[in-house]
Amino acid sequence: MYKRMKKLLLSVVATMLLSAGAVCAKSPAVTGVKVLDGTVSGRVIPKEIYGQFSEHLGSCIYGGLWVGPESEIPNVDGYRLDVLNALKELGVPVLRWPGGCFADDYHWMDGVGPQAQRTRISNNNWGGTLEDNSFGTHEFLGLCERLGCQPYISGNVGSGTVKELAQWVEYMTSDSRSTMADLRRANGREKAWDVKFLGIGNEAWGCGGNMRPEYYSDLFRRYTTYTRDYNSAHGLYKVASGGSGDDYNWTEVCMQNIGGRMNAIAVHYYTVLNWSDKGAATSFGKREYYRTLACALNIEPCLRRHMEIMDKYDPGHKVDLFVDEWGTWWDVEPGTNPGHLFQQCTMRDAMVAALSLNIFHKYTDRIKMANIAQVVNVLQAMVLTRGDRMVLTPTYYVFKMYRPHQDAEFIPVEYGTSVLNSNDVGEVPSLSVTASRKDGAVTVSLVNPSYDKPESVRLDFESLGIKKGSVVRAEILASSSDIHDVNDFDCEPKVVTRDFDRVNVKDGGLEFEMPAASIVTITVK
Ligand code: AHR
């Protein structure tokens, strides 16, 4: 009896471990990663996964992206030159604007015409700051043209009208002789802009009107009827405001009531452990570090659940899923305006970025866009500015290292991981890997999430015969001395990408050791 029970117990444990994909013995000294580059997945990682978000919030727009043509800070037609150039390096594919919560308080007519005559309002969502509307439609769309990115307009549903949004679309995209198109011409822009993405409201469940999904979905149907497509090249692509994080009912109701009338539904997922006490960006111990990573990784089951609901109503994948706000959210830096959401960035944030991007890559049959919040000076920003100075954050470097994955063909990867850390928020695996192929080259990005331990990796390719000279580029991102390092205004940057010269070609594969809390990207041909 005892023997039978023991056998049963062992087989249950074995099944549990196998189904969890866990490595039951102690972690192998070297983690083997096999890149299945012989596979034709045919699935492209849309570049829009690398989207950015800009809101009239703190110094994201004013002081960050825009200083005005009269500023002493070097600028081109009012756009900050250093920031512009830094963002060009990222190949920003799409930029969402003007919010966020601000979008449902934004009346676009306030922001067109001679700048001195524009309406001044109080930015009630974000610290009551005076908003002089000097950055409006022309300035935003001009910025997108300079960056070579697609604009993603977030329309006002909460406090606007159908007519107002319909006219905005006409103003931006119609080449007719209508009053709206002529007003645009009178304001200095002859040709219609190429605007594809239109958000119908933002966080309609909260700052966007505190609606219920039933009411919002009816409103969506109404707004979408009158926001017309003036650009037959690609049509107007309409995005519904989705639920917050795990609000699956919101997705369910929208899929049921809106269905194929929307092109996408956009959920928001922030990495926050406790909304009433978010903690400092720069002071954390091992426990908080792993809890944060687990929280970020929990986006995967969350998105899967949203996608399961979508599959039920839309098995043909006509409706896309966007994650049009994501990233870390900490307490503001001491001494800064609490309404301006200015935070620093460490390797912990870089880890969240890389782990999230690796997850998005896996689900691009449904997830077609993601916009990290936000591009400059707000939350998990790419760039921070103070006066005429600018620093690039560790997150910036992740986006730069990952650039080869934009519009590349997704390649599956096989590797075994162990559970590095298990805590009350979730589990953190010992490694996360993603790979893609573009222009005949294969790029592999690897994340060692360990707080304090290196990870030895052997990388094998299914088809590529690796020899000396196969590695086109190898880069690493890690803190130079301490995981809490930041890139600050008063000192040399401490967290930057460096050439990773410790990659050894051995037996037709690559072997290397990743330091603790590091991200490596290797491109081979
Ligand atoms: O990104 C900051 C805010 O977070 C956005 O304005 C809002 O949509 C979300 O709650």
Protein model, in words:
The protein is of the alpha/beta class and 525 residues long. 26% of the residues lie in helices and 26% in strands. It has 11 helices and 27 strands. The strands form 7 sheets. Strands 2-5-8-9-10-11-12-13 form an 8-stranded parallel beta barrel, surrounded by 5 helices. Strand 12 (320-328), helix 10 and strand 13 (367-373) form a beta-alpha-beta unit. The longest helix is centred in the first third of the chain and has 18 residues, at 2-19. The chain is globular and about 70 Å long. The chain starts with a helix and ends with a strand. The structure holds alpha-L-arabinofuranose (AHR).
Distance between the termini: 59 Å
Helix content: 25-40%
Q: What is the typical, i.e. mean, pLDDT?
A: 94
Q: What is the overall silhouette?
A: globular
| Structural class by secondary-structure content | alpha/beta
Total beta-strand segments: 27
As a whole number of angstroms, the C-alpha radius of gyration is 24 Å
Small molecules in complex = alpha-L-arabinofuranose
Largest sheet: 8 strands, parallel, barrel
**Poorly predicted regions:** 1-27
Strand order in the sheet with the most strands: 2-5-8-9-10-11-12-13
What amount of the residues lies in strands? 25-35%
Number of helices: 11
